[in-house]
Amino acid sequence: MISTETGSEQRFYGIAASPGICIGKAYLVNREGVQVVQKYELSPDEISHETSRFRAAVKKADDELNAVIANTSEELKQNSAILEAHKVLLKDKLLYGKVLSTIESEQVNAEWALKKVVTEINAIFSRMTDAYFRERADDINHVADRILRNLIGGQHKSIGTIDKRVILVARDLSPADTSQIQLERIKGFITDKGGRTSHTSIIARTLEIPAVLGLHDATRNIRNDDIVIVDGTAGVVIVHPTEQTLLTYEERREHYEGYKAQIRRRSHLPAETRDGVHVRILGNIELTEEVVSVLDHGGDGIGLYRTEFQYMNRKEFPDEFELYDKYRDVVEVMGEKPVTIRTLDINGDKAVAFTPENHESNPALGLRAIRYCLKKPDIFKTQLRAILRAAAHGNVRVLFPMISGVEEIVAARRLLDEAALELSRADVPHNRDIPVGIMVEVPSAVIMADALVRQVDFFSIGTNDLIQYTMAIDRGNQNVAHLFHPLHPALIRMVHRVTQIGLEAGIGVDMCGEMAADPLHVPLLLGLGLTELSMAPASIPAIKRMVRLVSAADGQALLQDILRLEKVRDVVHLVDETYGQLVAQKVYGDMGSAR
Description:
Elements: E1 2-6, E2 9-13, E3 15-18, E4 21-29, H1 47-70, H2 80-90, H3 93-106, H4 110-126, H5 131-134, H6 137-152, E5 166-170, H7 175-178, E6 186-191, H8 199-207, E7 211-213, H9 218-221, E8 227-231, E9 236-239, H10 243-265, E10 271-272, E11 278-285, H11 291-296, E12 302-306, H12 320-334, E13 339-342, H13 348-352, H14 369-375, H15 377-390, E14 396-400, H16 406-425, E15 436-440, H17 443-447, H18 449-452, E16 458-461, H19 463-471, H20 489-505, E17 508-511, H21 522-527, E18 532-535, H22 540-549, H23 552-562, H24 568-588
Parallel strand pairs: 4-5, 5-6, 6-7, 11-12, 11-18, 12-13, 13-14, 14-15, 15-16, 16-17
Antiparallel strand pairs: 1-2, 2-9, 3-7, 4-8, 8-9, 10-11
Helix pairs in contact: 1-2, 1-3, 1-6, 2-6, 3-4, 4-6, 12-15, 15-16
């Protein structure tokens, strides 16, 4: 956490997890977990009792989660799948089975066995380059903490019992914690841990309350009843604000609330530039239940349906009917609007059981995504059959991730044809005539775009991975995270090449990375020729509004100026100088940006 001080006022900068501004008194929540666990050895005749004690603690944790799910507010019913996943984790062989075997083989107490297993799991997750999957370790830790509290008889105060208007301050908050938030009492929250792609962050955005995560030591710098300002749009937390700061942020808060209400009212209108270019704004989802949020925010379809969640934290792969059932639900709710289903984008063995035996020293460059699917055609075709069956119910597109060359897309299409043939022979209703696309997220795909364009119906640019692979950086590594920038000249030139090739070939080109969710980037993306952008549902109204404020012609002029620049800071300066004030005024009023 970076901080600056002006008199008694302190400013801290973290991760902007959920937009908005709130002002209020801090309420520290004790979510430290059990940090010290003693080890003691068991005699052979004590092992049975110890395993029974562990099973009882797990059963109690399961009952607790059932109670949370039953009492979840209507606003969060769509996120109950996250809590259901925590219930599955309670009995996952990676956690449950390994703890039992550790108790028996090492003859140690359940608390020690649990801590040891969780430490091993965290080591495996920490080596994953993708921030989304690395943060799934939080789910394991939340579940383990709940079991551990039950083992030692600790108390867990429910956030739902807080009876005053406050801002939560915690080391960490689990999805179960945030699911109990009462909107009439909790204004927002800040945490030491967590990231933008964590489930806690997802729930905060669903609730649409301000949240700043990843502050590292907020709980050591903030005390109960301290006056705190949380700016979840800029990732800023201000403690002991001066009177002038309070006035400034109260005005910003009122302006932001008015701005949000205004753009929500118009979010269902088409996104069309001042010079008549229509842009489709779609939503990214990972849970079936999130489709409602896309529609509520005015989304024109699903631009990226991440399917990994159905494969994670379980003992076996999902079968065809289970996948089909999930996909069909989304497709039917969306009606005529497009649903882009991305095939499995994770190492499948790790998705099902994150065991040391399956460890790769560098999983980001290993057997993942399309590489794994082509090596495991039976698993891949199960998913493809489910997608083709769901396509009989609406407007479906299939998207293959991490394509690096022509051979991979040819092989993937062949398996898609085989899946369709199997369904035809079994007389199962399906639709083979669906658009086929690839994620452009590795440099080789950019270089080979002129050849790949002949194999597909559309390109989908994933800027998150494309930046990491192009710049050879892990944005989760604080030593190099500053190099991760969507306005890097190299990235812009790569996107320009892909869009030009796509336009010349007459195929669609869209963007589904985080770059698409920033209003400041909209003019440049229009200049690049992109007319379909996909993002988190909550970002849709602001992007639609920005599209209406600018012209594609001005974006093209901006692009030409940018293509002549060689340094990130020069590109950032040009974009900010040209459109920064427009964005800041719409969000914060005439006071400019939060920083």
